User: Fold these one by one.
Assistant:
Number 1:
Amino acid sequence: MAKQKSFLKVAGTLDGLTFYKSVDGHLVRTKGGVSKNRIMNDPAFIRTRENIAEFSTTAQSGKLLRTSIGTMLNRAKDPRMSSRMMGIMSKVRQLDGVSARGQRIVGEGILTAGGKQLLKGFDFNNRAALQAVFHAPYTLDTVTGEVTIPDFVPLDQLNVPEGATHVSFRSAFINLDFATGEFETQYSLVVNTILDMSSTTITLTPSQVPAGIGSQLYLLLIEFFQEVNGVQYPLRNGAFNVLNLLEIV
């Protein structure tokens, strides 16, 4: 894989070379390899077909999780979030100890303690990890989904980006069944506060406990804003915002 350095950027296939754009820039690679028909039918590629099948179901599980989070995800994510999640989901799938090779799924792997531990603490925006930004103790009630941050002092317990004047908090409680694809998400109200040295207790309570069966996920969103003439604007399009999967049970 090579990078295009010419001022004229090409996309498509030309003389056996494929030109394309990715998050790493404009790249070029050679065209070729085994035909799709052979991969899907030749007995020699049975392991490859198994890997393709598991890759597909794993990708679907990652998409399902992202969909269940709703608009919160748009407020705090990095360009490589999907690929980072895919890597973790693949490890979760490998913990499926009941399905045959080629049929292992995230829905089984996530039922294990190891699977939950792999996904717990996932930062959807690796430019703003929870542990790097948020330095306050908190409690999580896994029955109600309530997150409590007692005696919170913003300027003392946050790594505040330059230009920010306010911060808001919101939590989500998701009941997600990876096997069936069904989910329900409940959100707390947004709690917005000025960035100063005042002490306050932040309480984030989802509107209700989500219905259904499956894995229960608890997320925390932290957003920074800059106030100008009484209006709060998202700081740098959310580059400093935090979205973290606090717990999964």
Note: The helical segments are 36-41, 46-69, 81-93, 106-109, 113-119, 130-133, 154-157.
Number 2:
Amino acid sequence: MENRVIYIASADAGWLNMVAAGMASIFEEIQFTTVNDVQGLWHLPSSALVIYDKASLGNPTALLINPRERGGKWLIVNADSLDEESVPGLISLGFSGLIVKNQTLERMPRAIRTLTANELWFSRHAMSLSLKQNFNLSSQPTNAIHVLSAKYNLSVREQQVFLCLVQGQANKDIALAMNLSPSTIKCHVAVILQKTGKQGRSQVSALLLEDALECVI
């Protein structure tokens, strides 16, 4: 394994020091650098790796952190199980891996080896969901939808309803297509509005346009 730098980013000082010491004892040839935030991590070389502690730093997509712009490889750790449903969006943004909270310490060494070998590290379940969603959304603007789903932590079912909303479908039509009750669809729509901070269906549909404008800017 060639010499390289791995940044461990966390606002939890105790966790940060423990992980840095543990990883340094396993990978003696790697330089581990600890940071309390990622504000200074820009223009990273392709060999650099950032381990991002979601539990203390928050959702990286909501903070508009884009690995493709910052460089290097980014591994999200201490993630929630729901985050695995947002893997297509994370991959679109350039993230290279994700480990859920109860598996972080156990799987981090293997993840580091995998990422430094220029491979991705996502669970089989997450990649399966990603492939299914790509097939289901093959004729839609999948990149924008995946990114928005990751940004707002939408579940798989909420992503499906979100896509229907963007297409302008009514609740009864969505319920029929998804074989669910209209009341269930109404609940999903309410959750989507709450997560996205929008007031109505038309504003939800406008999210794709807003995302495109952000990319241009």
Note: Residues 212-217 have pLDDT under 50 and may be disordered.
Number 3:
Amino acid sequence: MKNWYYFTNHEVIPEGEIKTQPSRASALAQIPKTFVFPKTYPNSVRVPLPANPPVVSVPTDITPERVRQLAYAINDPAGGYKVQSLIGLHVSAPYLHDGGVAAGAEALKQDSKGRYVVANSEQLGLGGTSISNIPPDPEASLRVLLDRDLRELAIANN
């Protein structure tokens, strides 16, 4: 299903195509064993719920089986990564499949020419943010993602 209004194609890209560390997929392979068929209440049911409210099944056939299997490393031990939506991207740091492009709020500053440079390398990458309990700053992280030189420094810090 390709819905332009979600700003994603909902595809799962095989790990072999991305060429990254497949350990994430191995970890996700156990998750489907915990799944149950999703159910909900009809919109006619009021809250608080009555004693025995009617229940309806939530359709799951909107995602092709091959995509679900790839996302959870079923039949392919390397798995894959879902194409994220662009909606809310500006507040969803850190970025990349592994969160490796992250920057804290104090990581960057503008130089005299208006370019962004590293002000605090201790706040670059996962080690300088999430692992150090410093929240990744969405604006700084997006700048690092889009600037090749800054991105290389953040990845090196990982």
Note: The helical segments are 15-18, 23-28, 65-71, 125-128, 138-146, 148-157.
Number 4:
Amino acid sequence: MIKHTIVIVDDHILIAKALRGIIANFEDFEVLYECENGKDLQKQITSKKVVPNIVLLDISMPVMDGFETASWLKKNHPKTLVMALSMQDDDQSVIKMIKNGSKGYLLKNTHPADLEIALKTMVENGCYYPEWAASKVFASLGIESKKLLEEISITDREKEFLKYSATEMSYKEIAENMICSPRTVESYRDNLFEKLELKTRVGLAVYAIKNGYDGI
């Protein structure tokens, strides 16, 4: 059986080694090597001339963090699936990783069995996000997503807010850029939640990115 190859990028050696040991028990996956940061990954890929199918990527790392690394992989090795594995669960981190090309996002307290499911799902479907990170959005997005957006009655101002939702701006900063009150911004958000059947800002951001509404 041909296994899907994985590289672990994490500056905490014990965590990287522990992950390797866990994945060694997964039937469909194998770890090629571990890297301490994005720069190390670049060197390893160049020297070994082997590009992994999957990169398990920490976010907070010295020298070259997860955001930069995901962006580099997206540009240079777009077929490699990036799974963010972090302790950070804030909207800004999730949104930024999605924009930089991450196809999955898990927290480090994830159970090993759930990690295996996440990896299998990402390989089969092209992405994996747990419920809190808007998996419902990914599951519902497809070729017809642009048509769906056109069929839904969304105002120009709501579309403008949709673009800002895919940035790292706070709602207060979005309000300042849209020259309106924070209350009005919240109204745009709530209207889009209802129209698009979403529950989180991450969901809005993913929808915006998938539909090309992230040009700000």
Note: Residues 98 and 206 are 7 Å apart (CA to CA).
